[in-house]
Amino acid sequence: MKGMNLQFIAPIIQNGEKIVQLDPEDVEQENEKWRSVIVLYVIRDSPTIGAMERFLSSVGKFSVKPQIFYHNDDYFVIRFSNLEERDQVLYSGPHTVNNRPIIMKSWSTNFNLHDEILKIIPLWVRFPNLPLNCWSMKALSKLGSALGNPIYAYECTIGSIRISYVRMLIEMDVTKPLPRTVKLQDPKGKIIQQEITYDWEPSFCAKYLKIGHDCNEDKTLQP
């Protein structure tokens, strides 16, 4: 039987309470192990591992088959062999599985499903007719930061291949109404009202605190 031998390490005592104190070296190896991971959640669905394997094979080619782990809170953790293959999937999309939208986020040490996946999610955002002199990395970062946490600019945006709009992946709080415009001030002080559109707009139910939940839909299903 394979397992892990453990040993007794006394907790510290503060104000009469036991506290388990973790040092950086205690978690460093596991942090590295899970660094090239995506946390994936399918809205209002719980697909099989097989369905997730088919999804991955449709969006990329991998040097080593990604490992898929299922959590009882209905999300998946997918571990790739390297960051490049992780980003190949993370920065693609938007995608669906079984006709249900997918939410994907890179894993972090303070990841919490309910605080992150179900409230702050990455959205593909478009800025139509953005002035061409605003396409620098710093200008786009400032623009995306007005909406949330900018993650990635689409390849066609970076190469100026398609100049009718800028497309960015931005982590946004979907518990609030999504902005339709943002004001830009150019170096001369001129204010520009910049339009915003979204590849996909998730609905958020304030009653049940769920993405994709529709109370009106539930009422129509009741006998």
Descriptive notes:
InterPro entries: DUF4283 (IPR025558). Residues 31-113 form the DUF4283 domain. By secondary structure, this protein is α+β, with helices and mostly antiparallel strands. Helices cover 24% and strands 31% of the residues. It is built from 7 helices and 15 strands. The chain has a 5-stranded antiparallel sheet. It has a 4-stranded antiparallel sheet with strand order 9-10-8-13. Strands 1-2 form a two-stranded antiparallel sheet. A hairpin with a 3-residue loop joins strand 4 (67-71) and strand 5 (75-79). The protein is globular and about 65 Å long.
Radius of gyration: 21 Å
The major sheet is characterized as:
5 strands, antiparallel
What is the count of structural domains?
2
Please count the beta strands (DSSP E, at least 2 residues each): 15
Q: Residue ranges: pLDDT <50 for 5 or more in a row?
A: 218-223
The average pLDDT is 85
Oligomer: single chain
| CATH superfamily caption of the largest domain | RRM (RNA recognition motif) domain
The separation of the N and C termini measures 52 Å
The ordered string of helix (H) and strand (E) elements is EEHEHEEHEEHEHEHEEEEEEH
Spatial arrangement of strands, main beta sheet: 4-5-3-7-6
User: Percent of residues in beta strands?
Assistant: 25-35%
CATH topology of the largest domain, by name, is: Alpha-Beta Plaits
Q: What best-fitting shape do the alpha-carbon axes yield?
A: globular
Helix content: 10-25%
Domain DUF4283: 31-113
InterPro entries: DUF4283 (IPR025558)
